[in-house]
Amino acid sequence: MEDGESPLCKNLPNLVSSFVDTFVDFTVSGGLFSPSAQNHPDPTPPQPAAPKPLQTRYPAPPRLVAVGDLHGDLEKTKQSLRLAGVIDGQGQWAGGSSTVVQVGDVLDRGGEELKILYFLEKLKREASKAGGRLITMNGNHEVMNVEGDFRFVTKSGLEEFENWANWYSLGEKIKGLVSGEKRKDLFDGIPLKFRGVKDDCVNGIRARIAALRPDGPVARRFLGENVTVLVVGDSVFVHGGLLPEHVEYGLERINKEVRDWVNGFRGKHPPGHCKGRDAVVWLRKFSDEKKGRCDCSALEHVLATVPGARRMIMGHTIQQSGINGACENRAIRIDVGMSKGCINGLPEVLEIVGGSELRVLTSNPAYQGRHKGYSEANGKERAALLIPAHGVKQVEVKA
User: How far apart are CA 332 and CA 80, in angstroms?
Assistant: First the structure.
């Protein structure tokens, strides 16, 4: 299942075009349509201090795990992390010093998006205490939601955000009572109705806008420190793909601009490298599963411009056959459509040991007992397939 029109609230694309231009102006300016803005006509309200630079490059860890698109499916998220041996049966970090990279698209297509965001944040803290690391990235669906494009939201996804907004608003009221100060209304500046949108969608849409708009509470807390491009050892991570012009523009610069936009420091639309079919979160040039359709020459050019890079690891495009490699494993595609909102694929994750050996860990029972064993942190054996050193062949798998 590729990105197409959502079956929910079919007028949402119109909502995006008509609403974003008027609403996001409010977000960035501090509230053009709010009573507080009318009482304080200063057009340049004070801005919070800019956050610290994001880390774009990391040295190679002893063990690196890459996890593909999650799309609102908490159980598949946990299955993939258990498969990698980085959480135990209780959902606690068990990965020791492992580094885990999740390549984006936590949002949309499922109804447990917030649960996954909270779960990953918890694991980040636990991993750090254990000497490990969990890095989360922006996908095209994170960018879409911050911009107000809800084409792929599900009914249960709207309900989850509506419930969150009710509790968040209550918490803000309690804080105001305790401090004696008036707290900002979560829904300040958001319309009560949207033309052409079903009544039963409105409250969830309002909650989702409030949460995920630039500098919204959920955007700031869970997406505000995401990277958009990443280099770990000799592996380049990106949701869609990189072109030479992206590298020339600057990976650190891309990360800064997207992070600043999510946190409300930039204009109403995402940076240019996140828009259009050649954007870093939308590109599919290296992801076509059909043999010979990956542009190996362009890929080689890109990797040559990133010092020490040997491969590009991407999500975004569902691989029906599971995690696989192309261009002599210079392109590794890890989106297996595991979410029930996609193709309900069997969880698979990529593992890189010692900076060189690539293996796929899979839950596919077809591989059980046919490949060498791998011991998880809890001692449970999983089957393993090595990715071949040469040749355009499916990345082999560990189950």
Answer: 17
